[in-house]
Amino acid sequence: MPAGQGCERGWGNRVTIASRYHRFAVIAVTALAALAPLSLMIYQSFLTEPVFTPGARFGLEAYRSVLADEDFAVAFGTTLLLGSCMVLIAVPLGSVLAFLMARTDLPGRNWLEPLILIPVFVSALVLSFGYVFALGPVGLLTTWLKSWTGFTPWNLYSFPFLVALAGLIHVPYVYLCAATALRRLDSELEEVARASGAPLWKVALDVSLPIATPAIFFGGVLVFFLGFELFGLPLVLGEPQGVLVLTTYLYKLPGRMDVPPYQLMAVVAAIMIAIALPLVLMQRILLSEAQRYVSTRPRATRAAPLKLGPWRWPAFLAVALWLAAAVLVPLAGLTLRSFAATGKEGIVLPGMPTLDHYRALLDHPDLVGGMVNTLGIGLIGGAAAVAFYGAIALAIHRWRSTWAPAMNFLVMVPRAMPGLVAGLAILLVFVSFKPLAPLRETLIPVWLAYAIVWLAYGVWLMSGTLLKVAPELADVARTVGANNAHVKRDVALPLIRSGVLTSWLIIFLIFVREYSTGVYLLGPGTQVIGPLLVSLWDKGATDFVSALAVVNVVMIGAGLFVAGGLGARLHG
Amino acid sequence: MADLTVNDLALRYGDNEALKGVSISVPAAKVAALLGPSGSGKTTLLRAVAGLETPHRGSIRIGDNVLFDAAAKVDEPPEARGLGLVLRSYALWPHRTVFENIAYGLKLRHVRAADIKARVEGTLDKIGLKHLSRRYPHQISGEQQQRVALARALIYEPAVILLDEPLANLDPKLRDEARAWLRHLIVSLRLSALLVTHDQVEAMAMADRIVLLNGGRVEQQGLPVELYAQPATLFAAQFMGNNNRLEGSLVERADKRAVIDVMGVRLEGVASTTAAIGDKATGIIRLEKVTLGGGPGANRILMSLKAQMFVGERWELLFAKDALTVRTYVSAPLKHELYHVEFPPHALWIF
Fold first, then answer.
1. Of the residues B234, B256, B276, the one at which a domain ends
2. pTM of the model
3. What does CATH list as the number for A17-41+356-466+498-572?
4. Which of A240, B45, B67, B192 has its CA 20 to 30 A from that of A513?
5. Based on the structure, what is the number of domains in chain B?
6. pLDDT tens profile A252-306
7. Is A197 part of the contact surface with chain B (CB cutoff 8 Å)?
């Protein structure tokens, strides 16, 4: 924690010079980190050649060429359709799931929670692999069913299937938003409704869910945004059927060209940012709306779950069905495939489980390096990111200045870059500025891209942690005789310690999961699992993909296990 | 209108026995108050009647209609019990207007829209809030919210209305007014009501019948006057009214009177104890029953005046003798230091 801190009230009522320096240093660094890659990307989009080419000049050629491309128009339409369909699937299912989990006596509520959140922590890319291994044309479940019935029961590579799976794995996001709001709901509001004659489902529709509407709406916008920047699922499931969305269009744009057409890629990126920025701003507004709407009364309300009665087990069955589709099928497919003996072209052979694929992983120094790097960027990079987010949160903590909203906005802006685009922007920075070139062989660009993409979320996490230090607590400590240093050591630090640890864990999980942000930054010495998986999948190395994806899931599982041990609540 | 009968109701939360066999009855068109300290099970009992908690033993019925019977495995859901519920927090739905809050119960009963409008408006008129029907709950005052909560519970004419500390969130001044208003409304509509409160004055003022609960059991039930004037147990005596407590040992007991020895002084009182001679015994006397004698006499202790407090319409005095302290009221302040404090035998209960 930097020595200078900045809260006019709280621990230390006087603003010291150090805190002012700290504040402006933090603002300068944040502005640079948030705006430089973005601006460079926009600038690039108005050039005729890549920015580092001597012949580059201003012009709208790149825009003309992209907008004239029919594939772009189709990808654009498909992206909007995909996002909308995901909202239509995830919002109702997520809301009902949240109601069942937060407000009723659904069986197994306690142990269901971590399972429900798996699709949040395991990347869509890894889940997509799992779907291919389980439900693909030669997938384990498909072949098994075919041997029973004699025909292939489904075609994984169809657009409705892609949309349905994308919707199902994004249910937890709506669930998280809605459940947080519903848990804060005063159960007396529901009890009075029941007493006045409303059956359970009327209570949910007339009282609980309407009160949680702002949060659910927020969840819907979030899912649309996530659908907009979704990369792994369309890459794995969409490409074989020739379906392109904006992210995969951007990814496929270089084709077989020697020098990537940065100006064209920048145009696609700029258009994506132009759409994403209003969505991000909207989320921001909705979030504050949602928080204002649910008034929490100081009196602790007794958690009195509504009794489902005869609906207990049917409701449980419905939740279990969803879990099977969104979690069990892909993870089981992935795991089984990673232990399956394979013949030519990845055909699964019958026989004993084998560790061959894992052994093969260890024979490749690149892949071993990738695993080590992933842990490194998760643990060390995560800690560095938390320190960075903490410094920013401290700088804006209880800061009543006209600059504070500007700073909040600044922190939010990078979120308008989908991961893939952020990675591209960082790449542009590192190829355009010669002094930075030596760093390209290190993990620093990858870390920077990750840290910037998750800036808004990270600062939000750390601000929440700092808010636990109520000004009164520090005031009281001062009056009983504690000086500024005492207050920090004896009051503030103990109060924020668990929050900092939890944030570190969450950032670890996010960095280990991340894949799209690193795609453009993958190179010798900078391999991390996520982008490696994309690259291996492109090469058709499915054996490696299955084993490496399982390693990724195990790392995330370990992180979640530690989180559970620490008693950390990962949300709400 | 029918009687509410609760028979031998027992309920536990985990290992904690909240109700240990409670039997009460609320006659039709009467108000019964559940009174007791926190943790006595009064709110649990009300919630069990509403169907929001599930007891493991006993039964609840309204007239011949069985709402709950553990032995017969009958457990009507809350919405099928036809009760009205008013809570301490009022629990007005924040996303519905005053009108919509009150109309909801009728809507659930498939009343025609025109009838709903007429009835809600009639009720709003009755509670004096007609001009606020389009407001949202957060736009009206606490007292108005309380009236809306009541109207919402009354509109569909429930068999029994359940009130859980309905006045607790009001300011003390408003509470006294609301108490009178609420009592008048319930009586004029000839409603049966079950009222939970921890305030004995509120219970006595509003109820026709008081059920005093302690640790999940009924300590005593009866008319307010009975509970106040003839407490059956030490707990009941101490819970009702403001009391002095005199610790001593039992020296005599004969029929309906007993004598305790308090610091060497013999005090005679009404016997409510089964203790043996020589055992510890407690004398309880209301503050307002303590008098000041002119000189030494029977049932008098010489005590010194330690403090006088002006509390508005009278003075509250504090007397002490060694560890024993006694409080009483007088209409004018006193001047001397020592007084012969008298405990009239008919007003001193010995437990």
1. B234
2. 0.82
3. 1.10.3720.10
4. A240
5. 2
6. 988 767 778 899 999 999 999 999 999 888 888 887 766 554 444 434 445 568 8
7. yes
